[in-house]
Amino acid sequence: MGYLSANTHAGDSQMSDHKHGEMDTTEHEKTFDWFMWFISRGTVAIIVLLIFLALVNG
After folding, report:
1. Distance between CA atoms of residues 25 and 57, nearest Å
2. CA–CA separation, 5 and 46 (whole Å)
3. How buried is 2 (Cβ within 10 angstroms: 0-12 exposed, 13-18 middle, 19+ buried)?
4. I need a surface site. Which of 1, 19, 28, 49 has the fewest CB within 10 A?
């Protein structure tokens, strides 16, 4: 059919070999920093909203 098995091109790899510690991770670090900022602010906002709802409905 049109499907390739895992062994079809085993010796014909066009990807480069992975060398541990050589990848530039600045984009990953920026994304993780943004993610942590977003999650922490979102958590605080949800807690404040829950406290507000408890005070209003209490």
Report:
1. 48
2. 48
3. exposed
4. 1
Distance CA 18, CA 22 (A): 8
CA distances from 47 to 10, 11, 18, 23, 55 (A): 52, 55, 43, 38, 12
- Where on the phi/psi map is residue 5: left (φ > 0), alpha (ψ -120 to 50), or beta? beta
What is the structure's pLDDT at 24? Answer: 86
CA angle 22, 31, 45 (to 5 degrees): 155
10-55 pLDDT, tens digit each: 555 677 787 887 888 899 999 999 999 999 999 999 999 999 999 9
